[in-house]
Amino acid sequence: MPRNGLMASLSRSGTATHFRLPWIIVLVVLVAYHNSLNGAFLFDDYSCIVDNLQLRSVWTSWRAPAPDVALAGRPVAAITFGLNYAIHGLDVRGYHLVNLLLHLCNALLLWGIVRRTLRSARLRHLSEAESYGLATAVAWLWAVHPLLTESVDYLVQRTELLVAACLLGMLYAVIRAATSARPGRWAGAAIGCGLLGAGSKELIVVAPLIVLLYDRVFLSGSWRAALRLRRGLYLGLTLTWAIVALLALTGPRLRTVGFQQSHMAPWAYALTQCGVILHYLRLALWPSPLVVDYADWPIAARLAEVWLQAAFIGGLLGITVWALRRRPMLGFLGAWVWIILAPTSSVIPIITEVAAERRMYLPLAGLVTLGVVAGWRLLSRSIWRPTIQQALGVAMVLGLSSVYLTLTLQRHVVYRSERTMLEDVIAKRPGNERAYYNLGLALVEAGEDEAAIERLQQAVHISPADAWAHNNLGVLLARRHHWDEAAAHYTEAIRLNPWLTEPRDNLQQLLAMQGPPPESR
Length: 521
Prior knowledge:
With 521 residues, the protein is an all-alpha fold.
């Protein structure tokens, strides 16, 4: 097989065999995210960071301020924010810097995993330069892909960055343990990554499965050999599940996540995910338009509504199963995507976010690797002249990364304030009631009551059953002396949710301000 020109060009030396840190990845990540440091606190950042009094001390930062906030049941992630507060206070740049460094760490871990996999015994026909170049292309394209911006720019989604670092770190440690003269140290590092991941996000439960499948495909060759050679490792990794289970006993986010939800049946959620997953795959190919809030995503009630999407998803799953049997190295990449998406995109209802782009942070790594490997094989088999291979290969990587880099830099601008983010959501998904509602609140804080009234009226029009929208609209109307309209919205809020005290109190205050009716005077 001829030596691929792209791989040689991305490597410093075609004949070198010693380790070389891919400084180009460090450079492109810093370039891609240099304008993200001035992004604002958004949405859940306020409950988890700005208004979270537990962060005022590192020693109490592991405690969640409430059971339904994003940091509940995730003490490791919470401690990182506590350390941020101890150093930076509420200077948003320090929080963004940590997220950026975590993303860079993940890119380097991905590079190390791909490079060592391509140099493994089962792929020994690849040269050092080819494995180095392929790994660099994968990490480069993945790191600058704009689909990842939500995970990095939305500060509280550091949970996604942390669990990704733990999963990638666990896999890298297992790869090193398989070839190390002292495998125990690397096995211990893998178990440590699992324990840290358990305190970062529940997604870590898939990590032992990913590692075992990787071991079967690339290291041991069979399930029996994998368990026999590394029995202690896998017993240690089961501690990950135990810690996640213990943290789940505290009941984090029980009102928004889980089978106990009355708002959405598991079957309806699974049907809805057929369209959601196809949307994710489309964004992986062409990342536009990107949206931070999919609150208006339609819920599928019957199979007939999504049968075409379901058939397509079923076909992709079938191809993955076939590949695992016939082409296990390629099948692993497909399984990587499905296994990581399973906790959030299968049957466990997450009623507040049916779809979220950050869920593609790790799955995208498998898709990018598949694309790079496929492109390399195509060039190797169709073009035999190394100079032409080099020109086309470099052009493909640089051209695609230039597009991704441009879109990523543009996307950071949207995160500059809650207002610009919400306006972006409304422009792309005009039926999103939650975006109108939150924009109305943001405009109230900015002192723009008239504009806020208009946005809240649009929220009520889209979702007339939202009691909070009626209440807040009533507050603004009362502030503008539109007494009758305000009273009507307070009354409607009370009818929709009799348990809310705010609209009842607001209505009583309004009536008291107006005084008794004329006939009683």
